[in-house]
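Example 5.3 — HSF5 protein
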Amino acid sequence: ERELLSSGHAHGAGTEGAGPDSDSFQATHFGSFVRQLNLYGFRKVPGWVGSDEPGDAGGWLHFRNPNFRRDRPDLLLRIKRLTRANRQRLAAGLEVRSRQPSRFQQ
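Solution (predicted structure tokens):
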């Protein structure tokens, strides 16, 4: 969790002195991370309970997005940030544009 919610500095080996990666998500509070998931169309799976282990802060939360699937990088292009303007475009049947694919999506 510490690495996932880091303040932008990598915690892995070989990254000393490296600045934040512009392709990575950065948050300092778990609520901010969940808010970002929701903005990109990820929804919490109701009733899904992970295993609680001794010393663990709680069960796992499971979020799902139909366009986020293993071995399907082509679907990532369909994940859009659901801003008010984008929701209005979708409701009107218009296309929602996104950024150019990153080097990982090509």
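Remark. The beta strands are 43-44, 63-64.
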